Amino acid sequence: MVLMGSFGDRDEEKRTVTPISVGNMAQNNRRRGRDSPRYSQEFEQDDDPVSSRNNSISGTTDCEEDFSHRMQDHQDTEWDVDLMEKRSLLGNNAGTRVLSRIPLKLSQRTMHRAIKIVRDLVDYTILLLGFLAITTGVVVYGGIFRGRNVFNGLAHFIKGGIFLWYGFLTLGRWMGCFAEIGWAWNLKPPAGVVSSRKARVPSAEFVESFVIFLYGCTNVFLEHLAAWGGEWTAQDLEHVSISIMFFGGGLCGMLVESQRLRDLLNNTILTSPANRGKDASSQEWVTPKNYGTSMNPFPGLIILLLGLMMSSHHQASMVSTMVHKQWGTLFVGFALARAVTYILMYLSPPSSYLPSRPPSEIITSFCLISGGLIFMASNKDTVAAMEYYGLNAMFAFTVTMGFTAFLMAHIIIVLAIKGWAAKRKQRFCMTAQPSSA
Protein backbone atom coordinates (compact mmCIF):
# COMPACT_ATOMS: atom_id res chain seq x y z
CA MET A 1 0.00 0.00 0.00
CA VAL A 2 2.93 2.37 0.59
CA LEU A 3 4.16 1.75 -2.95
CA MET A 4 0.71 2.39 -4.39
CA GLY A 5 0.34 5.58 -2.36
CA SER A 6 3.75 6.90 -3.40
CA PHE A 7 3.06 6.32 -7.09
CA GLY A 8 -0.54 7.50 -6.82
CA ASP A 9 0.40 11.03 -5.74
CA ARG A 10 2.06 11.87 -9.05
CA ASP A 11 -0.86 13.72 -10.62
CA GLU A 12 -1.66 15.61 -7.44
CA GLU A 13 1.94 16.76 -7.10
CA LYS A 14 2.05 17.98 -10.70
CA ARG A 15 -1.26 19.82 -10.35
CA THR A 16 -0.29 21.60 -7.14
CA VAL A 17 0.82 25.25 -7.71
CA THR A 18 1.51 27.64 -4.85
CA PRO A 19 -0.47 30.91 -5.34
CA ILE A 20 1.73 34.05 -5.33
CA SER A 21 0.46 37.62 -5.47
CA VAL A 22 1.24 40.01 -8.35
CA GLY A 23 3.12 42.39 -6.09
CA ASN A 24 5.40 39.67 -4.77
CA MET A 25 6.25 38.49 -8.28
CA ALA A 26 6.98 42.06 -9.42
CA GLN A 27 9.21 42.60 -6.41
CA ASN A 28 10.98 39.32 -7.12
CA ASN A 29 11.56 40.38 -10.73
CA ARG A 30 12.99 43.77 -9.68
CA ARG A 31 15.40 42.03 -7.29
CA ARG A 32 16.60 39.42 -9.76
CA GLY A 33 16.53 41.50 -12.97
CA ARG A 34 17.66 45.04 -12.23
CA ASP A 35 20.21 44.83 -15.03
CA SER A 36 17.93 43.26 -17.58
CA PRO A 37 16.79 45.19 -20.67
CA ARG A 38 13.18 44.98 -19.59
CA TYR A 39 13.99 46.68 -16.28
CA SER A 40 15.92 49.47 -18.04
CA GLN A 41 13.18 50.14 -20.56
CA GLU A 42 10.57 50.41 -17.83
CA PHE A 43 12.53 53.07 -15.96
CA GLU A 44 13.46 54.97 -19.11
CA GLN A 45 9.77 55.50 -19.80
CA ASP A 46 8.91 56.79 -16.32
CA ASP A 47 8.54 60.35 -17.72
CA ASP A 48 5.23 59.38 -19.35
CA PRO A 49 2.84 58.31 -16.54
CA VAL A 50 0.36 56.57 -18.86
CA SER A 51 2.94 54.68 -20.84
CA SER A 52 4.86 53.91 -17.65
CA ARG A 53 1.73 52.44 -16.09
CA ASN A 54 0.92 50.35 -19.14
CA ASN A 55 4.48 49.11 -19.41
CA SER A 56 4.56 48.22 -15.74
CA ILE A 57 1.33 46.22 -16.07
CA SER A 58 2.57 44.38 -19.13
CA GLY A 59 5.89 43.76 -17.40
CA THR A 60 4.11 42.41 -14.37
CA THR A 61 2.06 40.04 -16.54
CA ASP A 62 5.23 38.80 -18.19
CA CYS A 63 6.72 38.26 -14.76
CA GLU A 64 3.74 36.15 -13.77
CA GLU A 65 4.04 33.93 -16.82
CA ASP A 66 7.81 33.67 -16.47
CA PHE A 67 7.57 32.75 -12.77
CA SER A 68 4.81 30.19 -13.41
CA HIS A 69 6.99 28.51 -16.05
CA ARG A 70 9.89 28.44 -13.61
CA MET A 71 7.75 26.89 -10.88
CA GLN A 72 6.41 24.27 -13.28
CA ASP A 73 9.93 23.42 -14.49
CA HIS A 74 11.10 23.21 -10.90
CA GLN A 75 8.26 20.81 -9.94
CA ASP A 76 8.90 18.68 -13.02
CA THR A 77 12.58 18.51 -12.08
CA GLU A 78 11.70 17.46 -8.52
CA TRP A 79 9.30 14.80 -9.81
CA ASP A 80 11.93 13.44 -12.20
CA VAL A 81 14.43 13.21 -9.34
CA ASP A 82 11.87 11.40 -7.13
CA LEU A 83 10.98 9.04 -9.96
CA MET A 84 14.66 8.25 -10.54
CA GLU A 85 15.11 7.53 -6.84
CA LYS A 86 12.07 5.23 -6.81
CA ARG A 87 13.26 3.39 -9.88
CA SER A 88 16.74 2.98 -8.45
CA LEU A 89 15.26 1.67 -5.19
CA LEU A 90 12.50 -0.57 -6.54
CA GLY A 91 13.93 -1.44 -9.91
CA ASN A 92 12.41 -0.65 -13.28
CA ASN A 93 10.67 -3.97 -13.74
CA ALA A 94 7.22 -4.98 -14.91
CA GLY A 95 5.83 -5.35 -11.37
CA THR A 96 6.83 -1.81 -10.46
CA ARG A 97 5.22 -0.41 -13.61
CA VAL A 98 1.99 -2.28 -12.85
CA LEU A 99 1.94 -0.93 -9.30
CA SER A 100 2.48 2.58 -10.60
CA ARG A 101 -0.57 2.34 -12.86
CA ILE A 102 -3.02 0.88 -10.31
CA PRO A 103 -3.65 4.08 -8.25
CA LEU A 104 -4.08 6.08 -11.45
CA LYS A 105 -6.95 3.84 -12.57
CA LEU A 106 -8.65 3.52 -9.19
CA SER A 107 -10.44 6.37 -7.48
CA GLN A 108 -9.78 7.38 -3.91
CA ARG A 109 -13.16 6.04 -2.82
CA THR A 110 -12.42 2.63 -4.32
CA MET A 111 -9.02 2.48 -2.65
CA HIS A 112 -10.53 3.44 0.71
CA ARG A 113 -13.21 0.78 0.35
CA ALA A 114 -10.65 -1.90 -0.53
CA ILE A 115 -8.45 -0.98 2.44
CA LYS A 116 -11.48 -1.06 4.75
CA ILE A 117 -12.45 -4.53 3.53
CA VAL A 118 -8.94 -5.83 4.18
CA ARG A 119 -8.89 -4.25 7.64
CA ASP A 120 -12.28 -5.75 8.56
CA LEU A 121 -11.18 -9.15 7.30
CA VAL A 122 -8.07 -9.08 9.48
CA ASP A 123 -10.09 -7.74 12.42
CA TYR A 124 -12.65 -10.55 12.23
CA THR A 125 -10.07 -13.33 11.78
CA ILE A 126 -7.33 -12.09 14.09
CA LEU A 127 -8.24 -14.58 16.83
CA LEU A 128 -8.12 -17.50 14.41
CA LEU A 129 -4.84 -16.23 12.99
CA GLY A 130 -3.41 -16.00 16.51
CA PHE A 131 -4.57 -19.53 17.29
CA LEU A 132 -2.97 -20.75 14.06
CA ALA A 133 0.30 -19.04 14.97
CA ILE A 134 0.34 -20.60 18.45
CA THR A 135 -0.43 -24.13 17.27
CA THR A 136 2.09 -24.07 14.43
CA GLY A 137 4.66 -22.63 16.82
CA VAL A 138 4.09 -25.51 19.24
CA VAL A 139 4.50 -28.01 16.41
CA VAL A 140 7.74 -26.44 15.16
CA TYR A 141 9.20 -25.98 18.64
CA GLY A 142 8.34 -29.53 19.68
CA GLY A 143 9.55 -31.09 16.45
CA ILE A 144 6.44 -33.24 16.06
CA PHE A 145 4.31 -34.32 13.06
CA ARG A 146 7.22 -35.41 10.89
CA GLY A 147 6.89 -37.78 7.97
CA ARG A 148 3.58 -39.58 7.66
CA ASN A 149 2.65 -38.57 11.21
CA VAL A 150 1.63 -35.20 9.81
CA PHE A 151 -1.78 -36.64 8.85
CA ASN A 152 -2.43 -37.90 12.38
CA GLY A 153 -1.30 -34.56 13.79
CA LEU A 154 -3.45 -32.52 11.43
CA ALA A 155 -6.50 -34.67 12.16
CA HIS A 156 -6.19 -34.23 15.93
CA PHE A 157 -5.28 -30.54 15.83
CA ILE A 158 -7.99 -29.55 13.35
CA LYS A 159 -10.78 -31.58 14.96
CA GLY A 160 -9.72 -30.70 18.48
CA GLY A 161 -9.41 -27.04 17.49
CA ILE A 162 -12.96 -27.09 16.12
CA PHE A 163 -14.31 -28.32 19.46
CA LEU A 164 -12.15 -25.77 21.29
CA TRP A 165 -13.65 -22.88 19.32
CA TYR A 166 -17.07 -24.46 19.66
CA GLY A 167 -16.58 -24.11 23.40
CA PHE A 168 -15.56 -20.47 23.01
CA LEU A 169 -18.69 -19.85 20.95
CA THR A 170 -20.86 -21.55 23.56
CA LEU A 171 -19.31 -19.47 26.34
CA GLY A 172 -19.91 -16.34 24.29
CA ARG A 173 -23.56 -17.31 23.82
CA TRP A 174 -23.97 -17.66 27.56
CA MET A 175 -22.46 -14.20 28.12
CA GLY A 176 -24.78 -12.62 25.55
CA CYS A 177 -22.33 -11.89 22.74
CA PHE A 178 -24.81 -12.81 20.01
CA ALA A 179 -28.06 -11.53 21.52
CA GLU A 180 -28.80 -9.33 18.48
CA ILE A 181 -29.17 -12.42 16.27
CA GLY A 182 -30.96 -14.56 18.88
CA TRP A 183 -28.04 -16.82 19.78
CA ALA A 184 -27.85 -15.89 23.48
CA TRP A 185 -30.78 -18.14 24.50
CA ASN A 186 -33.09 -15.17 24.08
CA LEU A 187 -36.03 -14.19 21.93
CA LYS A 188 -34.71 -13.36 18.46
CA PRO A 189 -35.21 -9.63 17.71
CA PRO A 190 -37.21 -8.92 14.54
CA ALA A 191 -36.13 -6.72 11.63
CA GLY A 192 -37.60 -3.62 13.25
CA VAL A 193 -35.36 -3.93 16.30
CA VAL A 194 -32.15 -4.96 14.50
CA SER A 195 -31.02 -4.65 10.90
CA SER A 196 -32.60 -6.86 8.25
CA ARG A 197 -29.26 -8.59 7.67
CA LYS A 198 -29.04 -9.67 11.32
CA ALA A 199 -32.69 -10.68 11.33
CA ARG A 200 -32.01 -13.13 8.48
CA VAL A 201 -29.16 -14.91 10.29
CA PRO A 202 -30.09 -18.57 10.93
CA SER A 203 -30.24 -20.02 14.40
CA ALA A 204 -27.17 -21.20 16.28
CA GLU A 205 -28.40 -24.81 16.12
CA PHE A 206 -28.59 -24.55 12.32
CA VAL A 207 -24.97 -23.37 12.20
CA GLU A 208 -23.92 -26.21 14.51
CA SER A 209 -25.72 -28.73 12.33
CA PHE A 210 -24.15 -27.27 9.19
CA VAL A 211 -20.63 -27.54 10.67
CA ILE A 212 -21.32 -31.16 11.65
CA PHE A 213 -22.64 -31.86 8.16
CA LEU A 214 -19.63 -30.19 6.53
CA TYR A 215 -17.24 -32.14 8.73
CA GLY A 216 -18.91 -35.43 7.85
CA CYS A 217 -19.13 -34.93 4.09
CA THR A 218 -15.47 -33.89 3.82
CA ASN A 219 -13.88 -36.41 6.19
CA VAL A 220 -15.47 -39.37 4.44
CA PHE A 221 -12.74 -39.02 1.83
CA LEU A 222 -9.90 -38.06 4.20
CA GLU A 223 -9.89 -40.83 6.79
CA HIS A 224 -7.52 -43.07 4.79
CA LEU A 225 -4.87 -40.48 3.95
CA ALA A 226 -2.37 -41.84 6.50
CA ALA A 227 -2.39 -45.23 4.76
CA TRP A 228 -3.07 -44.09 1.21
CA GLY A 229 -2.63 -46.97 -1.24
CA GLY A 230 -2.66 -49.59 1.52
CA GLU A 231 -5.36 -51.89 2.73
CA TRP A 232 -8.25 -50.66 4.84
CA THR A 233 -8.17 -51.62 8.50
CA ALA A 234 -11.00 -51.91 10.98
CA GLN A 235 -9.90 -48.63 12.56
CA ASP A 236 -10.20 -46.86 9.20
CA LEU A 237 -13.72 -48.18 8.76
CA GLU A 238 -14.62 -46.97 12.24
CA HIS A 239 -13.45 -43.47 11.36
CA VAL A 240 -15.38 -43.47 8.10
CA SER A 241 -18.51 -44.64 9.94
CA ILE A 242 -18.16 -41.73 12.35
CA SER A 243 -17.88 -39.35 9.40
CA ILE A 244 -21.03 -40.80 7.85
CA MET A 245 -22.81 -40.35 11.19
CA PHE A 246 -21.78 -36.70 11.19
CA PHE A 247 -22.92 -36.40 7.57
CA GLY A 248 -26.43 -37.72 8.23
CA GLY A 249 -26.82 -36.18 11.70
CA GLY A 250 -25.86 -32.71 10.49
CA LEU A 251 -28.29 -33.00 7.59
CA CYS A 252 -31.10 -33.99 9.95
CA GLY A 253 -30.26 -31.06 12.20
CA MET A 254 -30.50 -28.60 9.33
CA LEU A 255 -33.84 -30.05 8.24
CA VAL A 256 -35.23 -29.72 11.76
CA GLU A 257 -34.20 -26.04 11.82
CA SER A 258 -36.01 -25.28 8.55
CA GLN A 259 -39.06 -23.09 9.17
CA ARG A 260 -40.53 -24.03 5.80
CA LEU A 261 -40.26 -27.71 6.67
CA ARG A 262 -42.11 -27.08 9.92
CA ASP A 263 -44.90 -25.32 8.05
CA LEU A 264 -45.18 -28.23 5.63
CA LEU A 265 -45.41 -30.67 8.52
CA ASN A 266 -48.14 -28.54 10.12
CA ASN A 267 -50.25 -28.79 6.96
CA THR A 268 -51.37 -32.22 8.11
CA ILE A 269 -53.71 -30.62 10.63
CA LEU A 270 -54.14 -27.24 8.94
CA THR A 271 -55.57 -28.74 5.74
CA SER A 272 -57.86 -31.25 7.45
CA PRO A 273 -61.64 -30.97 6.84
CA ALA A 274 -62.26 -30.18 10.51
CA ASN A 275 -60.07 -27.09 10.17
CA ARG A 276 -62.19 -25.33 7.52
CA GLY A 277 -64.50 -23.59 9.96
CA LYS A 278 -61.86 -22.86 12.61
CA ASP A 279 -61.81 -19.75 14.75
CA ALA A 280 -58.38 -18.08 14.33
CA SER A 281 -58.64 -16.49 17.79
CA SER A 282 -59.23 -19.80 19.50
CA GLN A 283 -56.63 -20.92 22.01
CA GLU A 284 -56.35 -24.30 20.34
CA TRP A 285 -54.94 -22.75 17.16
CA VAL A 286 -52.42 -20.40 18.75
CA THR A 287 -48.77 -21.06 17.92
CA PRO A 288 -46.98 -22.72 20.86
CA LYS A 289 -44.57 -20.56 22.83
CA ASN A 290 -41.64 -22.91 22.33
CA TYR A 291 -41.77 -22.27 18.56
CA GLY A 292 -39.74 -19.11 19.15
CA THR A 293 -36.79 -21.05 20.62
CA SER A 294 -34.69 -23.57 18.78
CA MET A 295 -34.40 -26.87 20.64
CA ASN A 296 -32.58 -29.09 18.20
CA PRO A 297 -31.22 -32.27 19.83
CA PHE A 298 -29.14 -33.48 16.87
CA PRO A 299 -25.88 -31.56 17.58
CA GLY A 300 -25.87 -32.79 21.15
CA LEU A 301 -26.83 -36.31 20.10
CA ILE A 302 -24.02 -36.56 17.52
CA ILE A 303 -21.39 -35.36 19.99
CA LEU A 304 -22.80 -37.70 22.67
CA LEU A 305 -22.36 -40.69 20.36
CA LEU A 306 -18.88 -39.49 19.41
CA GLY A 307 -17.90 -39.31 23.07
CA LEU A 308 -19.19 -42.81 23.75
CA MET A 309 -17.29 -44.17 20.76
CA MET A 310 -14.02 -42.48 21.70
CA SER A 311 -14.30 -43.59 25.32
CA SER A 312 -14.03 -47.21 24.17
CA HIS A 313 -11.83 -46.63 21.12
CA HIS A 314 -8.89 -49.06 21.18
CA GLN A 315 -5.42 -47.51 20.83
CA ALA A 316 -1.87 -48.82 20.55
CA SER A 317 -1.00 -48.08 24.20
CA MET A 318 -2.75 -47.73 27.54
CA VAL A 319 -1.82 -44.04 27.84
CA SER A 320 -3.33 -43.26 24.45
CA THR A 321 -6.49 -45.22 25.30
CA MET A 322 -6.93 -43.33 28.58
CA VAL A 323 -6.37 -39.95 26.92
CA HIS A 324 -9.02 -40.71 24.30
CA LYS A 325 -11.38 -41.84 27.02
CA GLN A 326 -10.91 -38.54 28.84
CA TRP A 327 -12.01 -36.26 26.01
CA GLY A 328 -14.73 -38.75 25.03
CA THR A 329 -16.17 -38.53 28.55
CA LEU A 330 -16.02 -34.73 28.43
CA PHE A 331 -18.04 -34.73 25.22
CA VAL A 332 -20.64 -36.91 26.92
CA GLY A 333 -20.77 -34.30 29.67
CA PHE A 334 -21.38 -31.61 27.05
CA ALA A 335 -24.33 -33.51 25.62
CA LEU A 336 -25.91 -34.04 29.04
CA ALA A 337 -25.50 -30.38 29.99
CA ARG A 338 -27.01 -29.29 26.67
CA ALA A 339 -29.98 -31.60 27.33
CA VAL A 340 -30.53 -29.80 30.65
CA THR A 341 -30.51 -26.49 28.77
CA TYR A 342 -33.19 -27.69 26.37
CA ILE A 343 -35.33 -28.92 29.24
CA LEU A 344 -35.12 -25.49 30.88
CA MET A 345 -35.94 -23.75 27.60
CA TYR A 346 -38.91 -26.04 27.01
CA LEU A 347 -40.37 -25.50 30.46
CA SER A 348 -39.81 -21.74 30.40
CA PRO A 349 -39.29 -20.35 26.89
CA PRO A 350 -37.49 -16.98 26.75
CA SER A 351 -39.76 -13.96 26.36
CA SER A 352 -37.15 -11.17 26.32
CA TYR A 353 -34.52 -9.93 23.93
CA LEU A 354 -32.00 -10.00 26.77
CA PRO A 355 -29.79 -13.08 27.32
CA SER A 356 -31.33 -15.67 29.63
CA ARG A 357 -27.96 -17.29 30.56
CA PRO A 358 -28.96 -20.85 31.54
CA PRO A 359 -26.43 -22.13 34.12
CA SER A 360 -25.99 -25.45 32.35
CA GLU A 361 -24.27 -23.71 29.42
CA ILE A 362 -21.26 -22.92 31.62
CA ILE A 363 -20.72 -26.65 32.05
CA THR A 364 -21.30 -27.14 28.33
CA SER A 365 -18.58 -24.67 27.35
CA PHE A 366 -16.16 -26.06 29.94
CA CYS A 367 -16.55 -29.60 28.63
CA LEU A 368 -16.07 -28.49 25.03
CA ILE A 369 -12.97 -26.37 25.69
CA SER A 370 -11.23 -28.95 27.86
CA GLY A 371 -12.30 -31.83 25.60
CA GLY A 372 -10.97 -30.01 22.54
CA LEU A 373 -7.59 -29.39 24.21
CA ILE A 374 -7.20 -33.02 25.24
CA PHE A 375 -8.32 -34.07 21.76
CA MET A 376 -5.47 -32.04 20.31
CA ALA A 377 -3.02 -33.60 22.78
CA SER A 378 -4.07 -37.17 21.95
CA ASN A 379 -2.04 -37.38 18.74
CA LYS A 380 0.61 -40.08 18.35
CA ASP A 381 3.67 -37.87 18.78
CA THR A 382 2.43 -36.19 21.95
CA VAL A 383 1.42 -39.52 23.51
CA ALA A 384 4.82 -40.98 22.56
CA ALA A 385 6.54 -38.03 24.26
CA MET A 386 4.45 -38.57 27.42
CA GLU A 387 5.42 -42.23 27.50
CA TYR A 388 9.08 -41.39 26.91
CA TYR A 389 9.19 -39.00 29.88
CA GLY A 390 7.17 -41.34 32.12
CA LEU A 391 4.00 -39.22 32.29
CA ASN A 392 0.61 -40.86 32.70
CA ALA A 393 -2.75 -39.81 31.25
CA MET A 394 -3.81 -38.03 34.43
CA PHE A 395 -1.02 -35.49 33.95
CA ALA A 396 -2.57 -34.23 30.70
CA PHE A 397 -6.05 -34.24 32.26
CA THR A 398 -5.16 -32.15 35.33
CA VAL A 399 -3.09 -29.64 33.39
CA THR A 400 -5.88 -29.19 30.86
CA MET A 401 -8.54 -28.68 33.54
CA GLY A 402 -6.55 -25.94 35.23
CA PHE A 403 -5.73 -24.21 31.95
CA THR A 404 -9.38 -24.37 30.83
CA ALA A 405 -10.64 -22.72 34.03
CA PHE A 406 -8.05 -19.96 33.72
CA LEU A 407 -8.86 -19.47 30.04
CA MET A 408 -12.59 -19.15 30.68
CA ALA A 409 -11.96 -16.62 33.45
CA HIS A 410 -9.79 -14.61 31.10
CA ILE A 411 -12.50 -14.57 28.40
CA ILE A 412 -15.20 -13.49 30.85
CA ILE A 413 -13.01 -10.63 32.17
CA VAL A 414 -12.14 -9.45 28.66
CA LEU A 415 -15.79 -9.37 27.56
CA ALA A 416 -16.76 -7.62 30.80
CA ILE A 417 -14.16 -4.93 30.04
CA LYS A 418 -15.63 -4.63 26.55
CA GLY A 419 -19.11 -4.08 28.02
CA TRP A 420 -17.75 -1.45 30.42
CA ALA A 421 -16.00 0.35 27.57
CA ALA A 422 -19.15 0.30 25.41
CA LYS A 423 -21.24 1.70 28.25
CA ARG A 424 -18.68 4.42 28.93
CA LYS A 425 -18.59 5.34 25.25
CA GLN A 426 -22.38 5.59 25.13
CA ARG A 427 -22.43 7.80 28.22
CA PHE A 428 -19.75 10.05 26.72
CA CYS A 429 -21.73 10.40 23.48
CA MET A 430 -24.89 11.29 25.38
CA THR A 431 -23.14 13.98 27.43
CA ALA A 432 -21.32 15.42 24.40
CA GLN A 433 -24.43 15.61 22.20
CA PRO A 434 -26.26 18.48 24.02
CA SER A 435 -23.09 20.60 24.20
CA SER A 436 -22.42 20.23 20.49
CA ALA A 437 -26.03 21.10 19.66
UniProtKB/TrEMBL annotation:
Keywords: Membrane, Transmembrane, Transmembrane helix
Regions annotated as coiled coil: none
Organism superkingdom: Eukaryota
Biased composition annotated in UniProt, kind: Polar residues: 18-28, 51-61
Region feature (Disordered): 1-71
Pfam families per record: Ytp1
Transmembrane residue ranges: 121-144, 298-315, 327-347, 389-417
Residue ranges of domain Protein YTP1-like C-terminal in the record: 130-419
Xref: InterPro entries: YTP1_C
Protein name: Protein YTP1-like C-terminal domain-containing protein
